Backbone:
């Protein structure tokens, strides 16, 4: 493909920084690996439309539009696509019809064009290209010619789980697929899940790890720049805007999620969104943000003293969280589960609060009893990757997976230290990304400052 064509479609076909030819091979291998594991037709439906289509008042600055599973197998970053993989036949991609009027408004897309089918096949590495309105008729044709009685799609398996999945994207398509094939007379077919394979998707390859390191580097630059300019910021909005600018100037895909910039008591709101309060000079400031680089993301949290120095109570509380984080990191290894890491983290924090705060006359008031949130989550092609219901919490982690390590402490704390009384309403969270290796883990964000000394030195260099 010529350079002009590549540039034209750079937002539509994600190469992950590889050559176009190598990117095609990578997606093809992933589809072949999927077919080897599941004997029967595999049907995947991508995101059909932007939520802005349903709500005119919603406008999104979001350039990564396709769901991570579909994009993982195709590289295709546009709406209203589907694919059917047949382990005994051809791979078929379904596309919207070419629409030049829509492209005039929204930009280039890869659409179904009868006269250009061979070009599109070569462009995307599929055996057949069909219009999206033929998805179900093609599925029915396939089912009528196979002796198998199972077909596969993506949905999160949850035996006995209480959470309602009816509105979940993948499960909704699974229900639609079951209904369509039954209405067409294929009542003996069972729809099974490829969930076990998509768990393996979270074992990142070298290309993904390289891109994740780049995303982390960009996030680190934004954090360090904020610290160096902390004296010039007056509000959370100032900092949030600065973070957005730094990240977007280093990655066209921009933020991996809206940044959390919470000072003082605002940091007690875990997913604080307003980012519009005036910075309080003596408060702690919690920042939680990340970058999307190619098809992977970063997600880091740091907590700093706005005035540049931790007071004694802030230092005590911060050190408890940092010590908990380091303890968890020491125990991350192949085979460990999130359940175990949660137990380690929150038990340590409660014991440390007892010894370092409460037994020395301090007090605390918290919204929660002992555990405000999970110690972390899987991260890869999306920020909270893997199943959204965290069924993976009891599954052993595997080499190549990346998880966040983010202990936190939130509430109002009081204590007399060296004859001076301190009171602090705050939220403290420290978050890194850990790549699981043979011998344990590698902290991909270790180079982003977080010790008390490193943070105070960085803040001392502020303009």
Residues:
């Amino acid at each position: 493909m010529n350079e002009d064509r590549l540039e034209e479609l750079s937002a539509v076909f994600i190469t992950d920084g590889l050559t176009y030819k190598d990117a095609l091979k990578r997606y093809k291998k992933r589809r072949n690996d999927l077919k080897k594991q599941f004997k029967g037709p595999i049907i995947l439906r991508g995101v059909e439309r932007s939520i802005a289509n349903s709500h005119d008042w919603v406008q999104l600055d979001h350039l990564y539009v396709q769901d991570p599973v579909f994009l993982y197998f195709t590289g295709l970053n546009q709406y209203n696509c589907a694919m059917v993989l047949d382990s005994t036949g051809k791979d078929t991609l379904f596309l919207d019809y070419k629409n030049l009027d829509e492209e005039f408004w929204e930009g280039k897309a890869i659409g179904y064009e009868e006269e250009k089918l061979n070009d599109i096949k070569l462009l995307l590495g599929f055996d057949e290209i069909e219009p999206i309105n033929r998805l179900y008729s093609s599925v029915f044709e396939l089912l009528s010619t196979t002796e198998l009685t199972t077909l596969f799609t993506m949905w999160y398996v949850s035996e006995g789980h209480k959470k309602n999945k009816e509105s979940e994207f993948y499960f909704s398509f699974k229900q639609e697929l079951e209904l369509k094939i039954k209405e067409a007379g294929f009542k003996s077919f069972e729809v099974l899940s490829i969930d076990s394979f998509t768990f393996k998707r979270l074992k990142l390859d070298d290309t993904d790890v390289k891109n994740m390191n780049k995303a982390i580097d960009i996030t680190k630059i934004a954090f360090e720049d904020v610290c160096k300019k902390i004296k010039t910021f007056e509000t959370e909005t100032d900092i949030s805007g600065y973070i957005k600018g730094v990240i977007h100037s280093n990655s066209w895909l921009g933020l991996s999620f809206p940044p959390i910039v919470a000072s003082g008591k605002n940091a007690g709101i875990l997913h604080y969104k307003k980012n519009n309060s005036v910075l309080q000079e003596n408060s702690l400031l919690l920042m939680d943000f990340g970058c999307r680089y190619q098809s992977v993301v970063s997600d880091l949290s740091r907590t700093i003293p706005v005035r540049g120095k931790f007071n004694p109570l802030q230092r005590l509380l911060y050190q408890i969280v940092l010590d908990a984080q380091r303890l968890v990191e020491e125990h991350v290894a192949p085979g460990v589960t999130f359940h175990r890491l949660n137990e380690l983290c929150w038990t340590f924090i409660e014991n440390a609060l007892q010894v370092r705060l409460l037994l020395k006359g301090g007090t605390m008031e918290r919204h929660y009893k002992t555990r405000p949130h999970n110690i972390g989550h899987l991260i890869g092609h999306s920020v909270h990757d893997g199943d959204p219901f965290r069924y993976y919490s009891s599954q052993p982690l595997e080499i190549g997976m990346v998880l966040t390590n983010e202990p936190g402490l939130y509430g109002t704390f009081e204590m007399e230290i060296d004859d001076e009384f301190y009171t602090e309403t705050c939220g403290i969270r420290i978050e890194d990304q850990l790549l699981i290796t043979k011998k344990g883990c590698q902290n991909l964000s270790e180079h982003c400052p977080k010790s008390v000394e490193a943070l105070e030195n960085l803040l001392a260099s502020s303009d």
